[in-house]
């Protein structure tokens, strides 16, 4: 039967994304992914992942989720399988010796992931402005008049602003 130990969402002495804070979802995803990678470097036999847990929100009846890195293992299998025992031992060692700080590789990875996010956000905003211009040329509408999913889908598909505007214009004319 699979089990896990909560390790935390970041090294013990580091600041981490706070539930309810601005941009918690994005920041916690990045921090947990980087922390998993750091733990894998320190405890290579471990089976680390990210688990989401419910948490009472600020509003009555509101449930929000927070993330933590967990060390997975199977205690029953560990009784008869040496590899599973090593995984379980690594889980308990990671819990006992959770790092206090980000290592140099993790610091670089955090900065890179943040930059990639900001670049994507900036590129998306620029792309939207270009689509808006193209839509204005086609039909006098603004991207704000059309559904967000249409732009996210086109952007992720790599469509040019002109192609996305044409698709939006065509979709608007079908109604």
Give a short overview:
The protein has helices spanning 24-42, 75-78, 82-96, 104-139, 148-157, 161-174, and strands at 3-8, 47-56, 63-73. By secondary structure, the chain is an alpha+beta fold.
User: Outline, from the CA principal axes?
Assistant: elongated
Q: How do the strands of the widest beta sheet line up side by side? A: 1-3-2
Helix-strand string: EHEEHHHHH
Please indicate the percent range of residues in DSSP E strands (runs of 2 or more): 15-25%
Portion in helices = 55-70%
Helical segment tally? 6
Q: From the alpha-carbon coordinates, what is the Rg to the nearest angstrom?
A: 22 Å
The largest pleated sheet is described as: 3 strands, antiparallel
Strand-pairing-aware structural class: alpha+beta
């Amino acid at each position: 039967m699979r089990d896990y130990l909560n390790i935390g969402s970041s090294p013990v002495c580091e600041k981490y994304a706070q539930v309810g804070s601005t941009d918690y979802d994005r920041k916690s995803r990045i921090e947990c992914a980087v922390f998993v990678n750091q733990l894998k470097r320190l405890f290579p036999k471990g089976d680390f992942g990210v688990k989401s847990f419910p948490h009472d929100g600020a509003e009555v009846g509101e449930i929000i989720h927070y993330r933590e890195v967990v060390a997975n293992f199977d205690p029953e299998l560990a009784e008869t399988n040496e590899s599973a025992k090593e995984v379980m031992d690594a889980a308990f060692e990671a819990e006992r010796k959770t790092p206090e700080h980000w290592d140099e590789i993790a610091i670089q990875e955090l900065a890179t992931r943040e930059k990639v996010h900001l670049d994507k956000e900036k590129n998306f905003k620029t792309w939207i402005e270009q689509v808006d211009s193209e839509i204005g040329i086609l039909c006098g509408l603004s991207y704000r008049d059309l559904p967000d999913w249409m732009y996210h889908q086109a952007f992720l598909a790599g469509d040019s602003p002109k192609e996305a505007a044409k698709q939006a214009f065509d979709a608007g004319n079908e109604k």
